Amino acid sequence: MKAIVMTGLGGPEVIEYVERPDPVPGPDEVLVEVAVAGVNFMDIGVRQGMAWNETPNPKILGVEGAGKVVAVGEEVDDLRLGQRVAWIYVPGSYAEKIVAPASAFVPLPDEIDDRTAASVMMQGLTASHFGTDFYPVRPGDIALVHAAAGGVGLLLTQIIKLRGGHVIGRVSSSDKIAAAKEAGADHVIVDTEGQFVEEAVRLSGGDGVHVVYDGSGPKTFQGSLDALRRSGTFCWYGPVLGGPGPLDIMSLPKSIKIGYAVVFDHIHTPELLRARSAQLFEWIIEGRLKVRVGGEYPLAHAVKAQVDMESRATTGKLLLVP
Ligand SMILES: NC(=O)c1ccc[n+]([C@@H]2O[C@H](COP(=O)([O-])OP(=O)(O)OC[C@H]3O[C@@H](n4cnc5c(N)ncnc54)[C@H](OP(=O)(O)O)[C@@H]3O)[C@@H](O)[C@H]2O)c1
After folding, report:
1. How confident is the model at residue 259 (pLDDT cuts 50, 70, 90)?
2. Are 43 and 116 spatial neighbours (Cβ–Cβ below 8 Å)?
3. 132 band by pLDDT with thresholds 50, 70 and 90
4. pLDDT by residue (tens digit) across 84-97?
5. What is the 3-state secondary structure (H, E, C) of 76-118?
6. Average pLDDT in the chain
7. How far is the CA of 161 from the centre of ligand 1 (A)?
8. What is the pLDDT of residue 55?
9. CATH superfamily for domain 139-260
10. pLDDT number for residue 28
């Protein structure tokens, strides 16, 4: 099969399109033909050495996708040949085929096509974690959403809106305003220098926002703290773009809640993974959650997809098609 591997740590130059033997399923595993693989910022972090270093290089990149079961191990009784499935956190997804325990896969309803499924497993479940679990948004809450036109940002904006919240989005260029507004953002601030605080506080009636969702690196951190209202919540989630460094708890605004939200804690059992995915699929089928595919690339062009994502020019989800 064809696959995209990283040969070592570094920039796009460590990525190669290669031939690899087809994986073979063990007794509790299934083999899936990948229809679409999702591109995530996390893949760039892996390439740079931020995670998943225990697996030696060269290794196949990617952790998300959708496809069709083509072989099942003898102990598997809940998935069948030909069934359509999707997944998150299955390393080796930038490939024509992937193998993993059956419990890692989520069966897809007929109404959810492969592209939609591969677009929401990582970024949709992450947005669902942030908006319904880490800080369950209440009607009337005002949220500040960074990178509001990105993959997580567009889905998070919609989830906040469907829970009755208001959204102030922050994006890096005016080209992204329309996408953020289409997702439901009430206001969009264009900024790359951490200069969004005054406007966010003004737009929230002078009190600051109830919750800030920030995965945008050190440049936005202090501003996000300053934009919070009394007893507000800071959902931090951006390990790839970097954190604020060690925090002195006494120097933080008093009585705020702050934490590092990680999607895995939303789906840490196979039952939760299937239940949370089913909720996303239901919202999509009802037309309450819409997926925006911002770019689709042949598998062989994975380098271009990652370079585009790092350039800050993309909106929505980027997909690879084997
Ligand atoms: N904690 C978790 O569980 C979890 C799970 C999934 C994703 N994430 C994180 O969520 C963030 C978004 O991930 P995604 O896959 O949905 O990607 P994405 O939002 O589609 O793309 C990343 C966004 O970050 C901004 N950006 C890109 N390069 C940047 C740079 N050099 N400096 C500052 N901002 C930059 C861009 O927004 P602007 O240009 O508009 O600012 C871009 O929209 C990433 O930080 C990722 O690591 C965390």
Report:
1. very high
2. no
3. very high
4. 999 999 999 999 99
5. CCCCCCCCEEEECCCCCCCECEEEEEHHHEEECCCCCCHHHHH
6. 97
7. 20
8. 94
9. NAD(P)-binding Rossmann-like Domain (3.40.50.720)
10. 98
128 by Cβ neighbours in 10 Å (0-12 / 13-18 / 19+) ranks as buried
**312 within ligand 1 shell (Cβ under 6 A):** yes
Instruction: Indicate if 139-260 has the same CATH topology as 2-120+267-321.
Output: no
- The total of other beta-carbon atoms located within 10 Å of residue 285's CB is 14
Which atom of ligand 1 is nearest the CA belonging to 318? Answer: 20
Cα–ligand 1 centroid distance for 216 (angstroms): 6
Band the pLDDT of 157: cuts 50, 70, 90. very high
Contacts of 157 (CB under 8 A, 6+ apart): 145, 148, 167, 169, 180, 183, 184, 185
42 lines ligand 1 (CB under 6 A): yes
Q: Is the CB of 236 under 6 A from ligand 1?
A: no
- What local confidence, expressed as pLDDT, does residue 60 receive? 98
Instruction: Please report, for the chain, the start and end positions of each structural domain, with discontinuous segments joined by +.
Output: 2-120+267-321, 139-260
Report the alpha-carbon distance of residue 143 to residue 157 in Å, rounded: 9
The whole-number pLDDT of residue 313 equals 92
Q: Using CA atoms, how far apart are residues 219 and 170, in angstroms rounded to an integer? A: 13
Residue 264, φ and ψ in degrees, nearest 5? -55, -35
Average pLDDT over residues 199-223: 97
- Say if CB 302 and CB 96 are below 8 A apart: no
Residue 316: the pLDDT is: 97
How do residues 23-43 score in pLDDT, each as one tens digit? 999 999 999 999 999 999 999
User: Which residue's CA is minimally distant from atom 21 of ligand 1?
Assistant: 150
With a 6 Å cutoff on the Cβ, whether 216 touches ligand 1 is yes
C-beta 106 within 6 A of ligand 1: no
Which top CATH class is 2-120+267-321? alpha beta
- Locate the ligand 1 atom nearest the alpha carbon of residue 314 and give its number: 43
Choose the residue to mutate in 41, 155, 262 for probing ligand 1, maximizing ligand atoms within 8 Å of C-beta: 41
